Amino acid sequence: MPSPAGLMGQMMAMPLLISSLLKHAARHSGDTEIVSKRLEGDVHRSSWAATEFRARQLAQALARLGCQPGDRVGTLAWNGHRHLEIYYGVSGSGLVCHTINPRLFPEQIAWIAQDARDRVLCFDLNLLPLVEKLAPALTHTEHFVLMTDRAHMPAHSALPGLLFFEELLAAEDGAYVWPEFDENTASSICYTSGTTGHPKGAVYSHRSTVLHAFASALPDAMDCSSRDVVLPVVPMFHVNAWGLPYSCALVGCKLVLPGPFLDGASLYQLFESEGVTFSAGVPTVWLGLLQHVQSQGLKFSSFKRTVIGGSACPPALMKTLQQDFGIEVIHAWGMTELSPLGTLSKLTSRQLGLPAEAQQRLLEKQGRVIYGIDMAIADDVGQALPWDGQSAGNLLVRGSWVISGYFGQAASPLVSLDGEPGWFPTGDVATIDADGFMQITDRSKDVIKSGGEWISSIELENIAMAHPAVQEAAVIACPHPKWDERPLLLVVLKPGASVSREALLSFYAGQVVGWQVPDDVVFLSELPHTATGKLQKLKLREQFRSHRLPGA
Ligand code: ADP
Hints:
Strand order of the largest sheet: 2-1-11-10-12-13-14-15-16
Structural class: alpha/beta
Strand content: 15-25%
CATH superfamily of the largest domain: ANL, N-terminal domain
Number of helices: 16
Shape: globular
Bound molecules: adenosine-5'-diphosphate
């Protein structure tokens, strides 16, 4: 693109490549630890320098297997040092790292691996039976790599020609020079979970990934520094663990990778033994961890702050972490299509003068955009709505780490705002206040429309979750002959707790206007979640489609 003034800058055009993050970490924080709890049963200790060396060995090994620039290398793996080495070895050498969620249905995994045409598939030890089952359907996959050494191989495997990660690396000398190429080259792919239709692939570039790493490390975002010890609970198969493997390299901090061991007791033990200061994950993870910590009367000794996102953080959970444990909670919103960070809730200096209650209400919102992302709310014909904290509309975004299309799909997902094209429709419904604090009120498909008025299911869920007897809550639209839809509250009670339907409904008094109070309550032993910990409201809506509301 020519410059409007006709004069070009005279600065070095160093491409923003993922390998540059790793080279920087290895050079300046080489002995900073990467700690992994492994399926082999040990706690493995590595470093940024060792990660860089092994990533170079992997790049050599993949070239020896015949991989060409742009080829996809799939992973089915938990958070661990080998997965980190794959992130860098694959993307750094010009291949594309395709992380796949092992908790999806096997048919979905096969569909995704085939759609991306993964030539190589690397997978963790406990996923061997799954991959053996999938293998016949993976017609594009030429090499299967078990992420361990031969000694840990189970007695039998139906996979012919199975390769071992450690053997592949041991055969290489690591004398590899990271190549330079266009920063817009694809670096990784992540498929959205696709609650309707087939999953769709978001293809990240080196440039988008490095810019996202820069922005997400900033103080008003995740505030990462070399003094942090970071434990990403968010899986590395889900939107690159919210970019933490990259932003941690950028700042050169210690990284603690929990493997598949995400139960409260295992996580707490790792937080304490490794001195974790910062973590990030979906709300359900914290519910599990807190249940363990509270039932055992434990405290955290180093844990200072956490980013919670992926679905709305219940205010009750936020308050417990803040008040009982002194942990700063940063509520964040993002999407697979946004690499994923869009907004985070941090107070501005002016807001620090507000009463505590008002500050808390702001922190409960999804927050302000970080530089690099632009957002707007629009009505159903694409006209911008005001930032008054009241008007709710379709949330649109654009920016340097927002997708412009989906992998292999010709149709553009982008829409226009006030006639200007180039906005990505998030599918979320939100308000934005005059200070730019965005609040998600619903997924557009989860909104409850009662007599033509919208009711926010998230607001009703948050209120229920603040009741001392409630462990988890979902509010869904239930068909109603007169109002079209009415809210139905589905709750899971805490172990040993009890509360009546009437008591729960009267808990809403004074918190929302009368017509927004749910019409009925159903008590359940558990709620269905997606593989990434989100409530499966579609499933619940199907299950309760013919539920008879009182008076209906
Ligand atoms: P998937 O692709 O599996 O749905 P994503 O992580 O891309 O997973 O999901 C993005 C969606 O998750 C957002 O569009 C929004 O609906 C929801 N979400 C993410 N963070 C929040 C949050 N803090 N509050 C409410 N909803 C959220």
